[in-house]
Amino acid sequence: MNKGTIDFQQFSLAPRRKPTTSDTSKGLLEVAAPEEVAPVNQEPENSTDRQTVLPRLTEGERRQRSAKRAAEQDESRRRLKSLKRAKDRAIKFYVNVPLEQEMKARLVKAAHENEVKMTVIMQAAIETYLEDNGY
To answer: Is the pTM of this model over 0.85?
Structure first.
């Protein structure tokens, strides 16, 4: 096997990205394409027009906002706890019932034909039995 010589021009190169920081070195600027090179010392246009000043809040307003935020968080915490308690109350209890193979096949067939789950049929049967026997 003979390896041929590989020439640099056989590879395709992706174009260079523009420098993202203003701390570009002179070497990087020389490598980049001339139309992509931006002057380092150039300031954005209309810099005086774009000045934004954030409003300074007084101490009372800051305390009021933090108290409001704390109350909202406390209320959220209470709602979450009550939701978890309600979920705990709705816990279901499971019962394993051994069935004969023929009865299981009948249950599967009934569930499939009526498009309900087998557990729904079992719950209805148990409920009917308990009501009929006074429980």
So the answer is: no
